[in-house]
Specification:
Number of helices: 11
Radius of gyration: 20 Å
Number of strands: 20
Shape: globular
CATH topology of the largest domain: TIM Barrel
Distance between the termini: 13 Å
CATH class of the largest domain: Alpha Beta
Strand content: 15-25%
Structural class: alpha/beta
C-alpha cells in the first residue's frame, strides 16, 4: 500500500549536514521510501494515501535513545498507560531501551537479568505501540555474567546492554563486564553522573567511564545530576565514547557538552534523548523540547539538533531508521511552526525557542495520525487528501 507526501517545504534528510531532500515529494511503499522527486510527478490516483504538506517541514521520525521501557505500553515508575503512543504524537517514531530497570522486583541474578532482557526483546519484536518501533531488551550488567552468558543472550536476539544498576562494589567493577558485552557484539550504554533513584548506585564519573569504555555515556549531562565541566572535557577530548544528552538532565551541562563537542569536531558523537519515564516524568514532547532548547539557548543549529535526534542515532546504533532516502524505513514526521509563533517554519521556530507543531506522523509507510494531540496546530493546513 503506497503513501505519498507532496508539496513539502523545508526538509532534512537526517544526515549530519542536514541537507534538504532532492525534491518536494516522497513516495513510500511496503514500509520503505521508494521515490523522492517533484510533486508534479505524483499522480494521486496511484496511491492509497496522499498527504499534502502545504509547505510544512518534513524530517525523519525522531529516535529517542534513552527510554525506560518495561512491558507493554506502561511505565510503573509513573503508573502511566499509553505513554509510548503519546510519544509518537511528539514526533518520536523509535525508542531504544535504556534497560528494563523499572520492572517491579527486577532480578539481579545472572539468570534473571538474562531472562528479563530476552523476554523484553521478544515482546517488542512485533509490538508497535502507536506505530513506533521499540528496540527493547537491554541486558543489565551484573557481577557473574561471563562470556558464555553474553553469547547466549546475543544468540537470542539481545543486542543492547546497560551498566549502572548492578551490584558492583565500585563503578570500576563494570570494566570487565563492559568488555565482555562489547566482545559479544552488544551495544553498551553506561549511566553517567549521580544516582537517579534514592539508594541507587553511586556516582559514575569520567574516570570510571574512561576505564570502562562503553559505546555510549548515557545522559552525559546528568541523569539528573551532571558531571563537572572538567570531567566532560575529558570525555570529549580523551575518548571516542558517544555523548548522549537527555532532556531529564542538566541543561547548563548539556550546553557545555554541545559547545565542547562542536569545538572538537566530534558532532557525530552527540545524541539527543529524553531519559524518561523517570522521576522527571513522562515527556511526550521531550525530544522536541530538548532539541529546541539546544537550538535556541545552546550552540546547535536546528538542523544539527534534528541530526542528533535522527541520523546520528542511526549511525551509532546501526539502525534502519533515521534518514529520508530511497530504501530507508518510511518513518517520517511532518512538522511546522505552531500557530501564534513569530516563526514561519519549524526550523525558525526552534531557533527562537518555540516547540514545533507536529502535523502528522508516518511510520513503516503508514499514516498514524493527522493531528497531534500534544502540540498546538501547525501554521499550515496539512491535509490528508485520500
Amino acid at each position: 500500500m503506497s503513501l505519498a507526501i507532496v508539496n513539502i517545504g523545508p526538509s532534512h534528510d537526517g544526515g549530519a549536514a542536514g541537507n534538504a531532500l532532492a525534491g518536494d515529494a516522497v513516495v513510500c511503499d511496503n514500509g520503505r521510501i521508494v521515490w523522492i522527486g517533484d510533486s508534479a510527478a505524483v499522480a494521486a490516483a496511484d496511491h492509497r494515501t496522499v498527504i499534502d504538506a502545504a509547505g510544512a517541514t518534513v524530517v525523519p521520525g525522531l529516535i529517542d535513545s534513552h527510554v525506560h521501557t518495561t512491558f507493554g505500553d506502561y511505565t510503573p515508575r509513573q503508573q502511566t498507560v499509553g505513554f509510548l503512543d503519546s510519544y509518537v504524537h511528539g514526533g518520536t517514531t523509535s525508542v531504544i531501551s535504556a534497560s528494563e530497570v523499572h520492572v517491579p522486583g527486577r532480578p539481579q541474578t545472572v539468570a534473571g537479568v538474562k531472562a528479563l532482557a530476552v523476554a523484553a526483546a521478544h515482546c517488542f519484536a512485533d509490538y508497535r505501540p502507536g506505530g513506533m518501533t521499540v528496540h527493547a531488551g537491554s541486558l543489565l550488567l551484573e557481577p557473574g555474567l561471563a562470556a558464555a552468558d553474553f553469547a547466549e543472550v546475543a544468540a537470542a536476539g539481545v543486542w543492547l546492554a546497560k551498566a549502572g544498576f548492578g551490584a558492583v562494589d565500585t563503578p570500576f567493577g563494570y570494566v570487565p563486564l563492559v568488555a565482555g558485552a562489547r566482545a559479544a557484539g552488544l551495544v553498551v550504554m553506561c549511566h553517567t553522573g549521580g544516582g537517579s533513584i534514592g539508594g541507587s548506585q553511586s556516582k559514575i564519573g569520567a574516570d570510571a567511564l574512561l576505564a570502562m569504555n562503553p559505546h555510549i555515556a548515557g545522559h552525559v549531562n546528568g541523569g539528573p545530576t551532571a558531571l563537572s565541566r572538567e570531567e566532560n572535557s575529558l570525555l570529549v577530548e580523551h575518548s571516542s565514547i558517544v555523548l548522549q544528552i537527555s532532556h531529564a538532565g542538566n541543561l547548563r551541562s548539556a550546553i557545555d557538552i554541545c559547545e565542547m563537542t562542536l569545538a572538537a569536531g566530534a558532532f557525530a558523537r552527540l545524541l539527543i534523548s529524553t531519559d524518561t519515564p523517570t522521576g522527571t516524568g513522562v515527556m511526550p514532547l521531550g525530544m522536541l523540547r530538548c532539541m529546541t532548547e539546544l537550538s535556541s539557548l545552546g550552540p546547535l543549529t536546528p538542523r544539527q539538533a534534528i541530526a542528533a535526534a535522527t541520523g546520528n542515532v542511526r549511525a551509532v546504533y546501526g539502525l534502519d531508521e533515521g534518514q529520508l532516502a530511497v530504501g530507508a524505513v518510511a518513518d517520517i514526521a511532518v512538522i511546522d511552526a505552531p500557530v501564534g509563533s513569530m516563526a514561519r517554519d519549524a526550523f525558525a521556530a526552534m531557533a527562537i525557542g518555540d516547540i514545533p507543531a507536529v502535523a502528522c506522523v508516518v511510520t513503516a509507510g503508514r499514516l498514524r495520525f493527522a493531528k497531534s494531540r500534544n502540540t498546538p496546530a501547525p501554521v499550515r493546513t496539512v491535509r490528508v487528501l485520500q
